[in-house]
Amino acid sequence: MTVLNITYENAEKADVAQIEGAHTDHFLADESKHEEGVVGTHDAVFGTQQEGGPNYRSVGWIQTMIIMTKTQISLGVLGIPSTFNTLGLVPGIIALTSITILTGWSNYMIGKFKLRHPEMYGLDSAGFMMFGKPGREAMLIILQLYYLITVGSAFIGISTCLNALSEHGACTAVFIAVAAIVGFLTSSVRTMSKIGMVAWIGLICIMVSLITLAISLSQQRPVLAPQTGPWESDWKAIGSPSFTEVATAISSIIFSLSSPPYFCSILAEMREPKDYTKAMICSQSIVYSLYLIIGVIVYYYAGSLVTSPALGTAGPLMKKICYGIALPGLLVSTMIICHVPAKIVFVRILRNSKHLSANTVIHWATWLSCTLGTCIIGYIIASTVPSFGTIIGLIGALFGTFITLQIFGAMWLFDNRPGSTVSRKRWIAGACWAIFIIVVGFFFQIAGTYGSIVEIKALYHVTKQGAWSCKDNSGLIR
Question: What single string gives the DSSP state of each residue in 162-202?
Answer without folding.
Answer: HHHHHTS-S-HHHHHHHHHHHHHHHHT---HHHHHHHHHHH
